[in-house]
Amino acid sequence: MTIWNKYNKIEEISSKGNIKTYKAKIEPIIKEIIPSNKNEYNNILYNLQNYKDSIYEIIEEDSKIYVVLLNDNNINLDDINIIKESYNDNNIPITKYEINRLFLKEEAMCKIITDNIENNSKVYGTGFFVKLNDNKYGLLTNNHIINKIDIGNTIHFNYLTEYKEIEITKDREVYTNEKLDYTFIEIFKKDNVNIKDYFKLYSDDVSKLKGHNIFILQYPNNNEISFSYGEITSIENNEIRYNASTTYGSSGSPIILRCNDYLIIGIHHSGFKSKGDNIGTIFNSILIDIQKQKNNKINKSINMNKKSNNLLNNINKNEINCVYNKKDKEAINLLHDFKIDITYLSDENKKLYKEGKKNINENNIEIYINNKKIKFNYKYESNEIGQIKVKFKFNKLLTSTSYMFSGCSSLESIDLSSFNTNNVTNMSCMFNECSSLESIDLSSFNTNNVTNMSWMFNGCSSLESIDLSSFNTINVTDMSYMFNGCSSLQSIDLSSFNTINVTNMSCMFFLCSSLKSIDLSSFNTINVTNMSGIFYRCSSLKKENVKINKNENKIIKYLSSD
Fold first, then answer.
1. Is 191 helix (H, G, I), strand (E, B) or coil?
2. Most exposed: 11, 129, 191, 458, by fewest CB within 10 Å?
3. Does the domain formed by 3-82 have CATH 3.30.200?
């Protein structure tokens, strides 16, 4: 049966190039396409799939293609003409129809203008809008384009023809990762970005996409959006590599799978010079990292709530519970007021000692040993040996805990969950030479008013780990010798530290011989005037295991010299 028999009584109504249009009495419109060769024939069949919503039937007959349309208003078959300037002769050439649809995604794109300066000019990049699995809508770009995500910082970008600014506020969800090279910033309706326009995410296994075609939609060097075309050359771990071309300004561009829905599979971040490929981060890896950061925030919030509850429950307690273990006949220093001989102290440390002593006296403290209240001037005899439980109950809030447990070499464990440090400004030498202390929970500490943390854990040679994530260090000016002699400490995360006001970091990690990794990514040493010996004799610490802000030249310098 020929097309003419199936749709009888048809008449030609127009003819253009290799396409003839007929009108049939029993069907609306029939278009006859006459390809010039087999390759064009196959390409036309492929391109017609883009019009599946408007085509009623496709019939192949006698090296011709007949397209039966429901109507003639939604389709212009002239658009199926092949674009001869194909980016890759091995792939099916791109159609005008595909390009037009691709450029419609400009509404889900923006050009980012950063405050960073390189070669006397501002750094530009590309960003795009996505919706996460929890329906959070946001702007995604590279970490090396936007990495200043502190509260109050402003993000600048061009959206279509408009210049826009959004401020990082507490109510925005913001996530970033230098290694995966991404930054996500939540966008609200008030930001005047059309949140209906966003890229959908490819949800299947990306590892099977090697050889598939992709687009890179980008803002290179100017305000006009453009695209490049290529194929995926390899997929390894978190990285995807491809031969689509990019240039300055393309950083942060979406890697778009060539398919009907233009799904996102990753974000472009750099070139791979040795192979000539470009590199991006697989989007699934970003989603996993964002979820991990969310979970950390939730856990931190839970811990903070627990801390608040503990403070509420223990607000009237204000006490410390300790376990000492006398393994020899030497006296125990319960608190520094009992035994310490200040004659050997420097003038500066004598002053600190006296400052602390003013706050710890018989009017402010009750002492219980093995649950029995004792007199303030009680002293252990040299023949008393064994494990001793001690409770210190404070009747007033302290303003200094300087030297509080200094020299308590027999102190094995300490419970500080009911200790109120709200008014404390000086914690210097607090656990100085507590050489038997193996662990310590400081999650209940309020350090908002503390200015001095020097020598705080000096000589705590048995400490293998310490969690200081709850510390607020915004007012601290002195961190010198803070972890000096913590020879068993293997790793430490100080990413929560704010060091903007610190002036002294000398010998901060002096003799931390077991230290293998350290996170100092939040450190700002702009006001530090003394950093000498900060990593001196940290014999196990390698540069690649020290996480720092890339602008921290001071730390890099001392890593090399120490």
1. helix
2. 11
3. yes
- Fold held by 92-313: Thrombin, subunit H (2.40.10)
Q: How many CB atoms lie within 10 A of CB 28?
A: 12
What's the order of all strands across the beta sheet hosting 386-394?
372-374, 365-369, 386-394, 319-326, 411-415
Spans of all domains in the chain: 3-82, 92-313
pLDDT(183) > 90: yes
Q: Report pLDDT digits (tens) over 200-234.
A: 888 888 888 998 889 999 988 767 888 888 889 99
412, 386 in Cβ contact below 8 A? no
Rounded (5°) CA angle 368-370-374: 35
Structural tokens at position 501: 């006001």
Strands (E), 153-212: 154-159, 162-167, 174-177, 182-186
Quote the CA–CA distance of 254 and 247 in Å, as a whole number: 14
Strands 162-167 and 154-159: antiparallel
User: What's the alpha-carbon Rg for the chain, to the nearest Å?
Assistant: 34
> Do residues 461 and 435 lie in contact, with contact meaning Cβ atoms separated by under 8 Å?
yes
The Cα–Cα gap between 524 and 49 comes to: 56
Q: What's residue 85's pLDDT? A: 32
Length in residues, the chain:
562
Put residue 26 in one of left, alpha, beta given phi > 0 → left and psi -120 to 50 → alpha: alpha
Q: Is 336 exposed, middle or buried (0-12, 13-18, 19+ CB in 10 A)?
A: buried
